[in-house]
Amino acid sequence: MTLAERRPVLSVRGLSVRFLMPGGRRIAAVTDAHFDVAAGECLALIGESGCGKSVLASALLGLLPANAQAAGEARIGDLDLLAADERTLARTVRGRLIGLIPQSPAAHLTPVRTVRSHLEETVAALTRTRGRAVVRVAAETAAERAAFPMDHLDRHPHELSGGLAQRAATALALVGDAPLLLADEPTTGLDRDLVDHTVDELRRHVDAGDGEGTRRALLMITHDLTAAERIADRVAVMYAGRIVELTDAETFFGAPGPRHPYSRGLLQALPERAFTAIPGMPPELGDLPDGCAFAPRCERASEACATLPPTAAGTACHHPHVREGIRA
Ligand code: SF4
């Protein structure tokens, strides 16, 4: 069975998030996102900082600030995450249906408690493991899976480097064995070897079956394209709050290459490719144009781009590239 034929673990339809600012200003952080993440699939959501990736993640977890309004649907099974109340989100979603590796792990750890204490509490809360000695072993196993060193388990968050805090957060996120793992920049602060180890562990977590095939999926938010290439089955590219391209990873990173000019620009900015930055800056999300938001930076822009491009074959562009080799 192909990934596309599998039952989606997460199904997002028309997800939009608006921030209502003082003076009536509206920030369009996410607009009309559509995608599925199938069982056994790793979907990498990529794009520059501030494009709306992490806001989308917060919407899925019900962690948006009070001045945000979310619309659309985001379903795990029969549950619409956007319509769920706080009690449901706290008791059945966070940790149980969605395991989160947060963007700033140190900020999510309680400063006065050790990593061991965090892990043991999470094991006790999210699994059926009981008994002090057994919980201790389960916590150490969780740490091992994320390559968190045993001799640092009794340290407090302020005694950890950024990389170790990231590994502690990864270990905590894996404990609940949630069907959807949401990893928000999980490789930040890690050296390349640890990046590889971390994404390989996430991949193993998704691939591990329960006898009837895997029921786990990963949505990885990242601007680390090398990590995305190592782990992803499909890639979704976000620009100015919209998903502008959704395609399989082999096509995206391989010789055919992506079709959207922004996606190609992201790849061409890599040192191992052309090492050429995309000119200009992303637009203000509070002042988006009516048409394509990438137009001021796009060498293919035409008058047609003053209107919003339709999405065809996974690409939102009036003048998408034809498939051809783009490696430098
Ligand atoms: S719609 Fe036009 S401006 Fe936007 S990416 Fe495509 S060609 Fe460029």
TrEMBL record:
The keyword Cell membrane applies. The complex is composed of two ATP-binding proteins (NikD and NikE), two transmembrane proteins (NikB and NikC) and a solute-binding protein (NikA). GO terms for cellular component: plasma membrane. CDD domains: ABC_NikE_OppD_transporters. Keywords: ATP-binding, Cell membrane, Ion transport, Membrane, Nickel, Nickel transport, Nucleotide-binding, Translocase, Transport. Belongs to the ABC transporter superfamily. InterPro entries: AAA+_ATPase (IPR003593), ABC_Ni/Peptide_Import (IPR050388), ABC_transporter-like_ATP-bd (IPR003439), Oligopep_ABC_C (IPR013563), P-loop_NTPase (IPR027417). It is found in: Cell membrane. This is Nickel import system ATP-binding protein NikD. It comes from Streptomyces azureus. Coiled coil: none annotated. Gene3D superfamilies: P-loop containing nucleotide triphosphate hydrolases. Its main location: membrane.
